[in-house]
């Protein structure tokens, strides 16, 4: 479904992505991990063109992301994205956050959008908070709303950019639970995260990045069983000893 | 202090001196509010353009802002009033010189409006730029176009954030309206000076003018504070999401 | 459009314009120094826990900030001669001359604006710094002069300079009392020779160059600060 071939990106003369090649198949959960500054957040943002890239090709269901003729808003509306800092819109009520793109992008009638939003809020356990503003919710609750907001577009795939790293430890699980649920239902997911427990339980494949390169791209069992590269071994030993 | 001069018949115009004061207040308010409409609309457009991702929109807006805020208002006032009719094509110049109704008034409005627009633009720009980059990304990732992202995501928060500095700009247009006296608009300060010349009640009439300015300033300040409270986003402290 | 544009009139009047510019720059510089000094006193008063200090200062600052500069100029041109007569006891005492009258008016006006900047600057110094100074046994004067103000001013320099650039633009308003600053000089020649287009555009360009360079310099300074912090 998502295919990346030899993607390279530079900030000025500094190369942040080096010939990255990987794929996410339909129904697959791929976890991208690696030390901070390894380019994993940049990589995931190239998938829906929030970060432009200079070389290589990315296609989503056969549509080229980098081609100038591609209707980016349309492409993006089909891929859900969840951000590290939630990025709910603070001036809108929770339910309006979820309604917005349904109405403005998908042109759903307001009442149909609202119905959908409420159903999704119920699903993430927050229907009682529909009329609050995001600032009145805890971080974990905000991130669950953000997931509901992305799901409201009936996405064909979901991108998660470090969805739990801005959360207090006691809130991490409520978000991971929603994500695990999604994965079980067969959602195609690309997840940048440090949560190795989540990766070992839910992921099908693990992509390990370091210094802008994809160092390892393996089945979950292989990655956790016998990572081939020294860098991945080093990373894992540091993460797991915490 | 003796305020009885206010009920004396005025030197010209048929009324009493109090009528001059009231007329002065009227012109002060008219000049400032019409100029504010120009400043707010032109300034908002320029402020948005200054944050545009493409240079051909950004650069002209930047040049405008730098020119208009780096030339004293008095000089701009004279250029609108004395110079503009001479350097525009002759037909327009003749109209400006002979047919334009109330040229002093309208030139003052245009001058203050376009001058303050440069300052409003800077406030709008800094409001937009104070929003986390993630907010734009979240809007785009949902499939909103960039203009839609400005309309529904960035500007509603940016305008809330800049209410206090906008109040300052509005107050400065209100105070700067006194500069219109240099091209002959009989606003409040001009009337105060004129009355002092005719009645020699300088202390009294300046006191009246000062109190009127202070009262209007207070009224504006309080109504803007009311607006700020009314539009306050529940739970929002700043730095969305954190 | 620019037919008959007469550059010679500008060239001929350069010495006169330069005199005006010296007036503008002198007035700006002195009003800036006086304004910052007075503004600092006002700010310390406003932050004082004694109401007898904070109230008058607050009232003065809020009043001055709510009225136009032109009205303030008129006020001082009216009040200064009166005050001179009272002070000297001489009913025929002449004023102190137009330059000093303007200087007092601008200093008193700008002090209110500088006060608010300096107050914010002082408040931006972490409370812990004050506590640490007192804990070391410094008194109010020492803590303020040695610890608080140096840090506050360091943070405020860019915005104080920006305000001073606006002050420089504002000095053109001495026009309303007929003084010959740069704009006044340009205006007098403009009317004498009937060359309004040339002189006013020339004045605009000169102001633009000076103020733009000034604000460019401030931006550079700010960028350097941001790196340093």
H/E element order of chain A = EEEHEEHEHHHEHEHEEHH
Assembly form of the protein: heterotrimer
Total strands of chain C: 0
The main sheet of chain C comes to: none
Biggest interface goes to: B-C, 39 and 34 residues
Total helices of chain A: the number is 9
Helix/strand/pairing class of chain C, anyone? mainly alpha
Which segments of chain A are poorly predicted (pLDDT under 50) over 5 or more consecutive residues? none
Percent of residues in helices of chain C comes to over 70%
Please characterize this protein's 3D structure.
The complex is a heterotrimer of chains A (242), B (242) and C (229). Chain A is of the alpha/beta class and 242 residues long. Chain A has helices at 40-47, 72-77, 94-104, 110-123, 139-151, 169-184, 196-202, 220-225, 230-240, and strands at residues 2-11, 14-24, 29-33, 55-60, 63-64, 79-82, 157-161, 189-192, 205-210, 213-219. In chain A, a hairpin with a 2-residue loop joins β4 (55-60) and β5. Chain A is globular, with a radius of gyration of 18 Å. The two termini of chain A are 35 Å apart. With 242 residues, chain B is mainly α. Chain B has a domain at 27-191: MetI-like fold (Orthogonal Bundle). Chain B is 75% helix and 0% strand. Chain B contains ten helices and no strands. In chain B, α1 (17-50) crosses α8. The longest helix of chain B has 34 residues, at 17-50. Chain B is flat. With 229 residues, chain C is an all-alpha fold. Chain C has helices at 7-12, 14-46, 51-65, 69-88, 98-124, 127-135, 140-170, 182-193, 196-228. In chain C, α3 (51-65) crosses α5, α5 (98-124) packs across α7 and α8 runs antiparallel to α9. In chain C, 36% of the residues are buried. Chains in contact: A-B, B-C. Chain B binds chain C through residues 66-67, 69-76, 78-79, 82-83, 86-89, 171, 175-179, 181-182, 189, 192-193, 196, 202-203, 206, 209-210, 213-214, 217-218, and chain C through 1-2, 62-63, 65-71, 74-75, 78, 169-170, 172-173, 175-176, 183, 187, 190, 196-197, 200-201, 203-204, 207-208, 211-212, 215.
């Amino acid at each position: 479904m998502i295919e990346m071939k030899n993607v390279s990106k530079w900030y000025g003369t500094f190369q942040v992505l080096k010939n990255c090649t990987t794929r996410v198949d339909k129904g697959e959960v791929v976890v991208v991990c690696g030390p901070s500054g390894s380019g994993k957040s940049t990589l995931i943002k190239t998938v829906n063109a929030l970060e432009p890239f200079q070389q290589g090709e990315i296609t989503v269901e056969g549509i080229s992301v980098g081609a100038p003729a591609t209707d980016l808003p349309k492409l993006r509306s089909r891929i859900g994205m969840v951000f590290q800092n939630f990025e709910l819109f603070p001036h809108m009520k929770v339910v309006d956050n979820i309604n917005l793109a349904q109405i403005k992008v998908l042109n759903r009638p307001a009442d149909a959008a609202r119905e959908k939003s409420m159903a999704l809020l119920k699903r993430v356990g927050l229907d009682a908070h529909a009329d609050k503003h995001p600032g009145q919710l805890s971080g974990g609750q905000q991130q669950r709303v953000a997931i509901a907001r992305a799901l409201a577009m009936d996405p064909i795939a979901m991108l998660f950019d470090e969805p739990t790293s801005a959360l207090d430890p006691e809130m991490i699980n409520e978000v991971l639970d929603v994500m695990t649920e999604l994965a079980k239902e067969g959602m195609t997911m690309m997840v940048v995260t440090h949560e190795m427990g989540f990766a070992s339980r839910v992921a099908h494949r693990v992509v390990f990045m370091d210094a802008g390169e994809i160092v390892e791209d393996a089945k979950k069992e292989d990655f956790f069983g016998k990572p081939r590269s020294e860098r991945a071994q080093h990373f894992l030993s540091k993460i797991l000893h915490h | 202090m003796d305020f009885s001069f206010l009920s004396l018949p005025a030197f010209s115009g048929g009324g009493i001196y109090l009528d001059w004061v009231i007329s002065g207040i009227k012109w002060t308010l008219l000049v400032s509010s019409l100029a504010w409409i120009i400043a707010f609309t032109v300034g908002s457009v320029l402020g948005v353009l200054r944050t545009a991702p493409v240079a051909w929109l950004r650069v002209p807006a930047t040049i405008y802002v730098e020119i208009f805020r780096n030339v004293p208002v008095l000089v701009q006032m004279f250029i609108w009033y004395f110079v503009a009719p001479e350097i525009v094509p002759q037909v327009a110049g003749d109209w400006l010189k002979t047919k334009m109704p109330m040229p002093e008034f309208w030139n003052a409005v245009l001058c203050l409006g376009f001058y303050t627009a440069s300052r409003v633009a800077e406030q709008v720009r800094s409001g937009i730029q104070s929003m986390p980059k993630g907010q734009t990304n979240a809007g785009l990732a949902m499939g909103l176009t960039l203009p839609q992202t400005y309309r529904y995501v960035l500007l509603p928060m940016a305008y809330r954030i800049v209410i206090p500095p906008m109040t300052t700009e509005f107050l400065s247009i209100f105070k700067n309206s006194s500069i219109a006296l240099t091209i002959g608009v009989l606003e409040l300060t001009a009337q105060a000076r004129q009355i002092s010349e005719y009645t020699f009640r300088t202390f009294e009439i300046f006191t009246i003018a000062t109190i009127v300015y202070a009262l209007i300033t207070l009224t504006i300040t309080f109504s803007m504070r009311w607006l700020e409270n009314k539009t306050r986003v529940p739970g929002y402290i700043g730095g969305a999401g954190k | 459009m620019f037919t008959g544009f007469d550059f010679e009139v500008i060239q001929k009047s350069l010495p006169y314009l330069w005199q005006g510019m010296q007036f503008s720059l002198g007035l700006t510089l002195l009003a800036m120094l006086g304004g910052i000094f007075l503004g600092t006193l006002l700010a310390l008063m406003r932050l004082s826990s004694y109401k007898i200090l904070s109230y008058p200062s607050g009232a003065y600052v809020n009043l001055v900030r709510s009225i136009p500069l032109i009205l303030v100029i008129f006020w001082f041109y009216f009040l200064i001669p009166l005050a001179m007569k009272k002070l000297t006891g001489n009913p025929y005492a002449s004023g102190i001359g137009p330059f000093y009258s303007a200087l007092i008016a601008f200093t008193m006006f700008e002090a209110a604006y500088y006060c608010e900047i300096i107050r914010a600057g002082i408040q931006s110094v972490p409370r812990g710094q004050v506590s640490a100074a007192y804990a070391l046994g410094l008194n109010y004067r020492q803590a303020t002069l040695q610890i608080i103000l140096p840090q506050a001013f360091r943070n405020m320099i860019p915005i104080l300079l920006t305000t001073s650039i606006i002050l420089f633009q504002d000095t053109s308003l001495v026009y309303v009392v007929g003084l010959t600053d740069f704009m006044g000089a340009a205006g007098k020649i403009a009317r004498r020779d009937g060359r309004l287009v040339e002189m006013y555009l020339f004045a605009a360009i000169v102001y633009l160059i000076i103020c733009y360079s000034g604000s460019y310099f401030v931006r550079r300074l700010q960028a350097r600060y941001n790196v340093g912090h």
